[in-house]
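[job 0412] stage=fold_complex status=start
inputs:
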Amino acid sequence: MRLSIYRYDPDKDERPYIKDYEVQLEHADRMLLDALVKVKVLDDSIAFRRSCREGVCGSDAMNINGKNGLACLTKVADLPEHVTLRPLPGLPVIRDLIVDMTQFFKQYHSIKPYVINDEPPPERERLQSPEERDHLDGLYECILCACCSTSCPSFWWNPDKFVGPAGLLQAYRFIADTRDQATAERLDNLNDPYRLFRCHTIMNCVDVCPKNLNPTKAINHIKELLVKRAV
Amino acid sequence: MALSVRKFDAIVVGAGGSGMRAALELARANLKVAVLSKVFPTRSHTVAAQGGIAAPLANSTEDNWHWHMYDTVKGSDYLGDQDAIEYMCRRAIEVVVELEHMGMPFDRLESGKIYQRPFGGHTQDYGSPKMAMRSCAAADRTGHAMLHTLYQQNVRANTQFFVEWMALDLIRDPQDGAVIGVTALEMETGEVSILQAKATVFATGGSGRIFAASTNAFINTGDGLGMAARAGIPLEDMEFFQFHPTGIQGAGILITEGVRGEGGYLLNKNGERFMERYAPNAKDLASRDVVSRAMTTEIKEGRGCGPDADHLLLKLDHLGPEVINHRLPGIREIAIRFANADPVREPIPVVPTAHYQMGGIPTKYTGQVVVPEGATSESILPSFYAVGECACVSVHGANRLGTNSLLDLVVFGKAAGEQVIKDIRSLPSPQRNLPKDAGEASRARLARLDAASSGERVADVGNDLRRTMQAHCGIFRFPEDLARGIEKVKEIAARAQRLFIQDKSKVFNTARVEALELDNLVETAMATIVSAEARKESRGAQSRADFPERDDKNWMRHTLWYKEANRLAYKPVHLKPMTVEAFQPKARTY
Ligand SMILES: Cc1cc2nc3c(=O)[nH]c(=O)nc-3n(C[C@H](O)[C@H](O)[C@H](O)COP(=O)(O)OP(=O)(O)OC[C@H]3O[C@@H](n4cnc5c(N)ncnc54)[C@H](O)[C@@H]3O)c2cc1C
Ligand code: SF4
Ligand code: SF4
Ligand code: FES
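[job 0412] stage=fold_complex status=done
writing structure:
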């Protein structure tokens, strides 16, 4: 398999460049991450993040032949023989395939990602019906990989102002939780030309999410709630 | 050149479930806390836990903490400390209900209460054939739900995280051995500094990467154990390494026991549900050590499946798409991706896979680290605490029950937090003085790596270590294999002193990180195999071909391994619970 990989080490490189690698894959090397680990044996200076190798930790998001995805969930068999890997677009590159995710997490934190409920809790669990709980499906599973936000043109142009699909998906996760009492406050926080309304339903985010989540749908729910509240 | 020093009330090394639960307690008490993690907190391996967290909520079946305690003691093959086990089981409801109040998205029953499923070894009425539904679950993503919830609460509490900082070595006060902090490498800049604190809490997780076939993430390299061992602190019960019955063959990815809890079962090549022969009552929900041994025996005796007769099949299609999609959606996704099998239609090929380290840094139920000193075998080591998989409390003894680890993380994470607060508030003076050579050991390790212009490749040495452990210290252990294995690990340890990395950059040098991790893998592997060779009995996860029986007369005791000369010492098991009658050791059948 042939890989062309974006390389940049600010410690020694003046500018980024693309380096080509050729690796022999074995039967057990199913995923792109397996191939990358092989590359690292050849050249230990290539830097990328990885941990769980099963698509739950969100470490190894990268741009694979122009599309964002997780290396550990991308089957080699589904890729062409020649693959180009770049860091996630739109975020500052620290080194090689490693980007600085500060801005992404800042937006996540800005939506107050925790259940707000100031009533004294009961002795046992708060009750929630299975149907109410079902509303959280498709929302809580997000692994904060940033594939979505870094494929969203609105986030590229305004990463400091637009919450981005990942953050908005989580904003809706808490609005949808029957245990949360801060819906009004959450909507106020998002009712802003930039924070929410920069989303023009381009749908890139849905297309790339490795967990098959649908940020656009969540964003539309929030927009509907704002409309409803206005009338 | 002196290293820069930062001072805190407390530092927590590790941001998995246990570290974040401890941190939350500390942040809420308004202490100045630093939480270090090699990865962004939600990328810690707790995120991969699937099946559930144990608590006798009795939402579906009758249950109470006494039954849970009995199961845990029996599951531990009587090596667990009964006081710590009582403590954990009594606090289970409290900590799980707290998680729910924090917003953890548990599945629900029609009653609106938390959904619970059966899990291996969890029974009603002190081991009766009736299973207890005790595992509180968020589909098959319980760890993800728990870890994100704990992170979210820490965001709310303004916890200070040092993300992508790797702790390298412990710093101890030469006077009395107290721990006064760590050296740490900031990956982004390559800078090493000293983080000093009145309390240091280790929550660095497991070491599953010492085996070739493992359910564990790349980052599970036993760093806390390596740091403790290098600082002269013993490691307890390291021979007990759990092999999970159902890792995907070839890939190692875990298929939760929750699959069997929901009604799935194992088949051999004859289509026989073989667990009925090994554990007539509990069958596929017998304890993990029992099921893994049965599977290995089936394969050894030629009843494995596939062209190489090298795996078994986990069947769950009979549960129907409804149950699979609702309760086990992540498993379906994983099986399709990593085993090319859609469990709605076909079984999943599985083999027992290295999963969980029962041993670790010796602690008591307060999280305080305890070491032998003079005539006492458990003297508190000042200002050092350990929680989660890197600690040995010991609640899991020789074999952990599924869902008891997530419980362990939150019970002892919270307890350690409470203890740290108490200890810090009673300290007379603010910070101790750093020894003159503080940080020297870490600097020497880094200097050696930077200076090397040739030597061994990290990947080669690591792979040899993993292969050796797999071949010599697996599910069934043979005396000659263990003895030869020790020699091999010693050779590998010597090679690990001569590592060479091409990458000399200061910025995010992952080659350097992997080289530093290898030191910890080597310490952990050595502790495991040396302790295994010395224990001349079979108990829980340790199964010796030459000593097939449990030997309570000679071996009802905890192992302590010291790095120095591979010395071993032993200490008694706490057979006395806190308030209830002790459970006397019995033959263990399921
Ligand atoms: C696939 C899988 C499924 C599981 N399912 C279940 C289940 O359903 N129920 C159950 O009870 N148990 C389960 N377990 C076991 C349980 O998940 C783990 O034992 C537990 O999550 C470990 O948590 P922890 O807090 O100790 O460590 P981890 O979550 O592993 O976190 C370790 C932390 O330490 C940090 N760290 C490590 N070394 C350093 C260093 N040198 N410097 C700085 N930071 C460092 C890491 O970055 C990380 O933040 C499962 C385990 C696996 C592997
Ligand atoms: S749908 Fe909205 S959030 Fe998603 S990519 Fe398009 S603009 Fe961005
Ligand atoms: S929504 Fe999907 S793509 Fe976006 S961060 Fe979450 S998991 Fe990643
Ligand atoms: S390595 Fe964890 S998501 Fe890919």
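[job 0412] summary: The mean pLDDT of chain B is 96.
[job 0412] exit 0
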